[in-house]
Amino acid sequence: MREKTKWNKIIHCTGLFLLAGIMALPLSSCGKKQDETVVEQKAVSQQETQNTEVLGERSGPGVVSDTIKTKKSRLDASYKKDAEIQKMLDSGNATWENPAVLLNPYGNSPLTAYLLFETETSCKVTMTVEGKTKETDISAEFEKTKKHRIPVVGLYPDAKNKVRLSCVDKNGKKKTKTVTIQTEPLPKELKDAVKVEKKGETSAYALTILSGQTTKYPFAYDEAGDIRWCITMTTGSYGVFPLADKRLIYQTDEAETPTEEKPHTTSMYEMDYLGRIYRQYYVKNGIHHEVIEKEPGGNLFVLSSSIAGHTEDVVLEIDRKTGETVKELDMKEIFDKTYRNKVDWAHLNTVSYKEEDHSVLLSPRNLHSAVKVDWDTKKIKWILANPEMFEGTEQEDLVLKPQGSIKWHFQQHSVYEIPYDLDGDPDTIHVMLYDNHWQTKRKVDFWDDDPNSYVSVYTINEKKMTVRQDKLFKSVKSIITSNCAYDKEKNRMFSFGGYLYPFIQGQKGMIYEYDYKTGAVLNQYSAKKYFYRGYEMTFNWKDLSTAMPEKSDVILGTLQAPKEKKESAAQKAEKKKANVSFELYQSMLYMTANDHTVSKLEFSGKNKCYQMDYSSAGKGMKEKKNQRYAIAIPLSGMEKDTYHIYLYYEGKWMDTEQSVTVK
Question: Is the whole-model pTM more than 0.85?
Fold first, then answer.
């Protein structure tokens, strides 16, 4: 038997409770006297209650208000500041002898700087931030030019940092100098963030990034455990995701959307290590565990939610240039109903694409499985799981056949193919995953009660549909989040345990660097706070030393949008104060309230009215009821007019006494 029957029944009942709901609302025509007729409205789908607005050309300022303040744009601030820096460089006032030193130039990356200067002849500049040891130096070389915009990344906090510069002209003549940069102390959130537990050989990673979970300020530490980079701008629960060009996708906590369970952020920035924000993407049903490029520089794969009775169950392919969704895969399309007995039945936490066979590798955590799917046909190629998990299901014949002894994974994270041939066999591929080895979300009879977590490496023969387990790297227990990474150059495996249970001497995360061949722990660090993932930090110095491109269509994506209604439900709303606030951002209204306290908004104009209806998101989780967040509502799709705002707040219609004008 795969899943314990008692657990099935409990979760099944909970899922039904979350989806059930009937709401009685008074209705009247917009701009007309209220009709006394009361109509019961059953909970309906997103498609029936909301529009989808594609952002882009219409994302600029097009909405104003006399009563609602405008939210400052970090995006606009980046472009404005970058133009000021370029103007300063072009002025010619900064020279080699007297360079301009701009610490924390964009206001959110305090361990970075720009050095600006002009030289009489073109020369090639080398920059080195001196580390406490030679091994922790950070160096970069820049192209030959007269005007130099030198990015400095890797300063120590609360220190007089020495930055060495050398300049070599076309004749080979070299000159050098040292610039001292004094930095401020770290924010208190990052004090003692990392501790060295064991230091052996030189690490494969000179700098390592941790972010997400309660590590709200992403940071990077060096081999000595010193923090050398951070962003003082809070992230969403899943932190940052690296891109091929060495920029980041920065999941924000600025705007979220309600779901049947916890709210999910809808906003993410593309930014670099200096803190420059290039563009902003919105995803209407939220972003959770993964944002990754389909191919370098290509479309984005984003994990999202169906909000159709379930969460964390959808893969989106998003056009990088427009933000539009070009393809979607709902887990209901590939699995039968066997395990669809809870709101978060699949809990996707990883997606990656393989161009060779147009496939995606997925990690539905709550199925204790890794799954390879043909992205063109949406058909499962194989499932990596204990065969007992799928006995008697429609997917039973798709499960890989185990060869030899295997310690099976439970509620895994971070499933990726290792893109190298590790065994000399052209018919095999290698898959690594972080095995949290935990089962609270999907209890099964074959649970082994092992007290550790693992990084597991499987070798799969896709022709024979077989799997063997080649490597198992043991770590302390990390029950959720976490990831692993393989470094080919030094033949190392990294384990990033982001959620220790129990704590280890008060520390909540543990990072191991193993020798891949022997399994020996070479280096080990612990983290003070929980984190979602760890990554290697590498640089695109050319990109960092270049001015930002001309600003154009920098707000992209999709959002849940108001839908026109023939009748108004709010003409006799009470004039009571609700614990709700508003801000305007570009052509959007940001509404901030506690989770699920507002189920509807109405925008009532002279001729038309529109409603934003969140009833399809169910009732949410009790433990999230005090979580306060903003919801971004695009208004540019509404007819030009001035609209009064009403709320259906905690079961009653209320008059906010606020209005917006769509121009």
Answer: yes
